[in-house]
Design a protein that fits this description.
homodimer, mainly alpha, two-stranded antiparallel sheet, 25 helices, 4% strand, globular, membrane (chains A, B), Calcium-activated chloride channel-domain-containing protein (chains A, B)
């Protein structure tokens, strides 16, 4: 794909991040200048207290960009202590060698960025600066984020555009750049897409031989779903051990919003633990049940109403403007959906806050679980209604829709011999699998990209015009801070764009894949080619998601996780529902709706459910048996570590000490082995040039930084409305 | 209970084990004397090579008892190395302090006996004597077992006969005496019996208000089953952490019978691992499916035939001898059952051997899983037939049993208006819960006890007579080894009885409880008082099982386990089947068999299954949330250990070394704190006397021991048949 391969290595200099580890985006548009100056001063003081170096530049509009760099010795110490903490909590089995003054070398950029993230966001008593964007004291901090490694991103995109399969090293690279949470999503979509090959091929065979609603495809599809879910469970453990994040949830720090009932000194560890009764939390969690019921009713009612109206208009109504009126219900539904979803989401957020989770992880998981409910209803209910209510019972139900007063016609005008087209389910599934996926891809990736590029161009144009007009209106010093140094301008405009970009939400992408999986298991049997469509879509989706992540979103903080989260339970439920739904669809539709008997249908459901339970047990036992290699490898590793330790203490009487390591310019290679090593000569020249600009960028001392910031605030805050209009 | 409280503390001397750690029972009845002498010599040599002290006495008949004692320094070293191995495999988190020469003090008798067990049975390259009873070189070794701690056993029995509930300390005592595998069974029966209190009470209430087949009891019963199974899963983890055996299966040694495909040097640990393809093993395990099918068909066919014959005779046949003929089918069934069970068991054993498990643990589990299938069929199929075939459809089926040629009567003589008594199911359940349990208790505990006591008395009588007759027939030296020293005679007769006793099979007792649980969940709704019966029965069963274990069986080697094994899966399946069965029984029987509709029945089943799945999910989530304390405590403990280690290495530069400990006479107290300390004076005298006899018992040197043994073999083996008849 030529779109991705146009980057040349010479651009590398332009992609340099000037040694910036983190950026804080401070907005003071709605603030008084004195207040803004105060806040800015305390921001700088807090960062300085946490041993972080800072520089300041202006952002888009009335905002400041505070650039943060962690001195390399301090960063090395943070990395080392983070590893010791991992060991204390049993995440890793090998005690990192060293003592309190050890400076460790991060294995991946994500590891060092995670330590930077902790230094910026952790509470002060834990050694951080406690900068919490959009919360409490820092509600004017719009965001705090690391900068993208553009060269590595482009390299990955370029590589993937030429290959079909991702390798284990590709996943390791994502992990190295964005942390485990994001890497788990890409591992998931990759495994899932690979597995899709089976239903895609089997679907083509079955479609060729038996057409839709065939029993062989139904069985293959359900079995496939069970095998995939069980496989993924093992794969997840495998990855979490490979990436050394198994059980990482235990060491996450307490959220600022956490309310505890009492502080207890743990009798065993001696640490002070903040306790909130798990029993009360469980009671609060039970509120999910009424929430899910209300959400189901609200969304379900809306969907049923829309559906009924649509059917009424398209199949019964014969009046004027029929062509336009047919679209009316869908339009109304689409208009209502955002506000209803928003309402439900705000209720969900409140519920999750009320449930009072200790760590951000648990909070996110609980929130995602609630989004599941609403997502699943909006995604599946319309098709469920078509498959199990409208087509089988439509002929009996639709005549009841005839309300004379609404239509102003006599009932006699109604078509008495109304019959429902049994192919409607197939059409709906075809539409959703082909056009639906393409449209959603465009909406998700292409449209934002076009919008962003257009906005950038427009801004550039306006800035250039404003610059010409304003050059003489400000003092020398202010002009120096308001107008970019030519060396920095490309870098700064990139950072400004990243500051305005959206945050990347990995849960949403995972959810999208779960919905796709659900479509395949629930309704796949009605059109076996659907898996093929999904397979093609996912090739693009994987790359599109990475494109979105690396070019349209802020780089997410490299958070660790040991699973794709509650989506796993969603997949399990879907594979179970899928078996029931597939059995019912095949039973109902195979003979074209001829002679449906309730008892046979129920027996089909019961038998398919037993088959599901039996197969799931067999598959999980068998897979665990055959794929137990990783777990054994993990045990062997721990054994080896302990054995080595034992030997070391036996011979020396003390564990070996680590040697001091020095980080070079705070940069670590993503790829363990580069495929084409750059020519050392040109590389040296380039590095020299980059080092020079970087040194200049960080040249201003702390009080000068403070001065610069205050000057920008005064210039933009006071004259803000004026200049803002022009910028 | 006066049966147990008659023991006086003065008996303590009589219960002393003379410092014997292990006993090997060698039988040479069918052997030539020279061969027997050779085998005995190599037995002594192997034991001596493994640094074990030996003494020899004659047993019942043509057999030798080889008494083994592990020198206390050697035992302490074994215990220490076993702990280091635990640490290496990640079973415990704290590295035991010490070095290669450390002598550790066992925490419990079970821990030291486990080391003795390893010293006796492990392969020579692992440092053991490799004595494998009834296998290979040692097929003439009838058994090898530790001696009971009679005082502790009696103390526990006495304590339990006075209380209703067991405490955590009681379970710890069982663990200290018999090891974790046995302790898990007692923990299970205790938890289960406690939980039974709810259905017992609820059953009485429901029976009072609504009688049989009531919906409230059915719901309560099913919910209870789900809660119990989920609770037990957590409780099991809890106990395995408390007893430090979690994941203990990983460090078990390879069985002698294990066949491996290749030996591979593990790239990580550097240890040589014997590999057998898990894929091939899984394929072999799949043979369980045809085995289960064949077993079901064979047993099922037999049961159906018996059932049909019984029904035919009792309800249709009107000829002569009816009173006797009625019992004929059951008698035939009972006569056939042992041989069919035996055949199935021998097939099961072959299958399990073919499946080729590396450790004895895995082998036992696989064998037990197969016994499950046969046990469950024989236990539940008759009642299932009554509940779901005979009573609902009997009126339609029974007339077909009328075969004129068999009966020699005209079909017209048959009662045409045949109807089945709907109360039959209730009667069957009542019989099984009350008389059945009492009978099985008698069969299992009381009968063997009576038999054993009678046999002992008879043997004593014959021995005394033979002694009078034979005194002058043998030489002085032989007489010395053939007739017991008066000081030892009580001890030796006790050991001889233990040598002849059965091995204790903990899986069978567990299985019995699972069958009881199955009765309650499957058929409990037909007579709600059944749980009350089980509750009373289990009070006795728990004590009876301990009585059997401590007085009628050999003391089992203190094997470790971290679960009750495959029974857990059996419980899960039963709680699921129970929901379906209860729903069906309540639906069918509630209105006295009036208007049964297949579609309603199927709907009932489907809905109850969904309710089951939903409830199980909710219960397991909720319980795990509320009962997560232990897991957190475990994590906290590991944290504390690592923290402490970190501090120690930081300040000293090396982990603290352990001090040498000395074991006193190889005895460790079972109870951490005795309730009534014995008076020191009389205790001292007693101890002095015991020490004296013990010293005399162990006074003979190795070559004297060999001489003694050879002499016994010559005396009993040659004149064996003669003397044996008289002894």
């Amino acid at each position: 794909m030529s779109l991705f391969s146009s980057h040349k290595p010479a651009d590398q200099a332009q992609w340099d991040n000037f040694g910036v580890d983190w950026v804080v985006h401070y907005q003071f548009e709605a603030l008084e200048i004195s207040k803004a100056v105060d806040e800015f001063e305390s921001l700088l003081r807090d960062l300085d207290d946490a041993h972080l170096e800072t520089q300041v530049r202006h952002g888009h509009g009335a905002s400041l960009l505070v650039f943060i760099r962690v001195p390399s010795a301090h960063l090395g110490s943070l990395v080392y202590h983070s590893r010791v903490k991992d060991w204390l909590y049993g995440i890793i089995h090998e005690l990192p060698v060293g003592d309190d003054d050890t400076i460790a070398d991060a294995d991946t950029p994500a590891e060092s960025l995670r330590s930077v993230y902790h230094a910026v966001t952790w509470q002060k008593k834990l050694g951080g600066a406690h900068i919490t964007p959009r919360h409490g004291r820092w509600k004017n901090v719009a965001s705090a984020f690391p900068l993208h490694d553009q060269a590595a991103n482009a390299e990955l995109l370029r590589k993937w555009s030429r290959t079909i399969l991702l390798t284990a090293e590709d996943l390791d690279s994502i992990r190295a750049l964005f942390g485990e949470k994001v890497a788990f999503y890409f591992a998931f979509i990759h495994s899932y897409s690979l597995f899709l090959a089976f239903p895609a091929a089997w679907g083509v065979v079955c479609w060729w031989h038996w057409g839709s609603y065939s029993i062989p495809f139904a069985i293959g599809d359900c079995l496939w779903a069970i095998v995939f879910v069980e496989y993924w469970k093992i794969r997840e453990t495998d990855l979490s051990l490979r990436w050394q994040v198994n059980g990482v949830g235990a060491l996450k720090v307490t959220r600022t919003q956490y309310v505890w009932e009492k502080e207890v000194r743990d009798p065993i560890t001696g640490e002070v633990v903040q306790v909130f009764s798990p029993y009360r939390q469980f009671l609060r969690q039970l509120l999910l049940v009424p929430f899910a019921s209300i959400a189901s009713l609200a969304l379900g009612g809306l969907i049923v109403a829309t559906f009924a109206l649509e059917v009424f208009i398209s199949e019964v109504y014969t009046g004027s403007l029929k062509g336009y009126l047919e679209f009316l219900p869908t339009v109304i539904f689409s208009l209502c959906l955002p506000s209803i979803s928003g309402l439900l989401n705000s209720i969900a957020t409140r519920l999750t806050q009320y449930e009072n989770y200790r760590t951000q992880d648990q909070y996110d998981l609980a929130q995602t679980a609630k989004q599941f409910v609403t997502h699943f209803i909006t995604a599946f209910l319309p098709t469920v209604l078509t498959a199990f209510v409208y087509v089988p019972f439509g002929a009996r139900l639709v005549p009841h829709l005839n309300i004379p007063s609404f239509q102003g016609k006599a009932p006699a005008d109604m078509p008495r011999d109304f019959s429902v087209d049994p192919g409607r389910l197939k059409q709906e599934v075809m539409y959703l699998s082909l056009t639906g996926q393409v449209l959603s891809f465009g909406e998700e990736v292409v449209l934002p990209y076009v919008k962003r590029v257009a906005l950038e161009k427009w801004r550039e144009y306006r800035t250039r015009q404003a610059a010409v007009q304003n050059r003489r209106r400000v003092s020398q010093g202010t002009s120096q801070v308001l107008f970019d140094d030519p060396d920095e301008s490309a870098f700064l405009s990139r950072v400004r764009n990243e500051a305005e970009a959206d945050e990347y939400n990995v849960h949403e992408d995972t959810l999208e894949m779960c919905v796709q999986f659900g479509y395949l298991t629930l309704f796949g049997s009605s059109w076996p080619l659907v898996a093929l469509g999904f397979l093609v879509n996912n090739w693009l989706e994987l790359r599109g998601d990475f494109f979105k992540l690396s070019l349209e979103c802020q780089r997410p903080p490299p958070i660790r996780a040991d699973s794709i989260g509650p989506s796993l339970q969603g997949l399990e439920v879907l594979s179970w529902l899928g078996t029931l739904s597939t059995a019912a669809i095949v039973y109902l539709y195979r003979d074209g709706m001829a002679e449906i008997r309730v008892s046979s249908l129920l027996l089909t459901l019961l038998l398919s459910e037993w088959a599901y339970l039996g197969m799931r047990f067999a598959v999980s036992t068998g897979l665990r048996k055959v794929l137990s290699r990783t777990l054994r490898r993990e045990a062997a590793k721990r054994y080896a570590v302990r054995k080595g330790y034992l030997k070391a203490t036996a011979s020396e009487g003390s564990p070996p000490r680590g040697k001091l390591r020095v980080r070079f310019r705070g940069r670590v290679s993503v790829f363990t082995s580069a495929t084409d090593p750059p020519s050392p000569q040109s590389d040296e020249v380039l590095r020299e040039a980059m080092l020079h600009t970087e040194r200049r960028f960080w040249s201003r001392r702390p009080n000068q930084v403070l001065e610069d910031g205050v000057r920008i605030i005064r210039a933009l805050g006071q004259g803000g409305p004026k200049i803002e209009k022009e910028l």
